[in-house]
TrEMBL record:
Residues 1-25 are annotated as: Disordered. It comes from the Bacteria. It holds the Pfam family ROK. It comes from Sphaerimonospora thailandensis. SUPFAM superfamilies: Actin-like ATPase domain (SSF53067). This is Sugar kinase. One of its GO terms (molecular function) is kinase activity.
Amino acid sequence: MKGGLVTRGGEVTALEGRPTGRESGPETVVAAIRAYVDELVDLGSSRYGAPPDGIGLAVPGIVTTSTAVYSANIGWYDVPVSAFVPPGIPARLGHDVRTGGLAESVLGAGRGVADFLFLAIGTGIAGAVVIGGEPYGGAEGSGGEIGHAPVWPAGEKCACGQIGCLETYASASALVRRYEARSPSRTAATAKDVVSLAVAGEAVAGEVFDEAVEALAISLASYVMLLDPAAIVIGGGLAEAGQTLFLPLEERLSARLTFRERPPLLPAALGMRAGMLGAALLGWQAAGVPDVGRDWSLDVLRRGAVP
């Protein structure tokens, strides 16, 4: 996990990481988060003479602003925000990818774009549906789970139990798994290795990468027809492939949208800091400052002003 202190003017004055202890169970994770939050509160108090005005936390799974409802990765159920923070400081929870989408909306590639999809392609795939500048969580806090939208009904079984999910074909972990399954004598340490082999003309890698792009195009075409976004912002580790991913995906998506123009595909601007910066925005919202961040400098946010 990562955390920091972010001033009302957007200055990142502390930014560090801590282990979650996930292997020891959900109670350990909750305790680790609480201990780190307490540490940051103490740091803020000593540095500024008062505790932070608000606290924002971005966590995985099904999430509302007040409860971490469920996370398969961590194993917790119905953890209230009060378990993570000391009493007396306003706090707000957010889904990790939706919170990243909030940051991209206010500060990054989606700045000035009212309606867009933030698609994070990493070990898994998740999305943030941004409508009117705000991430849409849905009725129960699970909105945006585009990674588990089926793209091939008769396809491979996903770890979630469904068949043919987008994540099963197009996530970074899927590229490695599917490549190694078809090339038993070869291994690929990362999705970047598979992409590099595909670019170099290696047949199996090219096939696996092509199927990933096709799955993404199918899923995004459905999303575009349903919600008519002004743009699609793509982040996560696989987005680092740059034009190697974007160009064929643009072509495939355009081919599927036969009677309308394709919305632009934009690279995410905030990188690995999106979640932390989005959590900072949630913290300021909890403190009663809803419009904070609109004038923050992207250059400052990228490099931070961390002593």
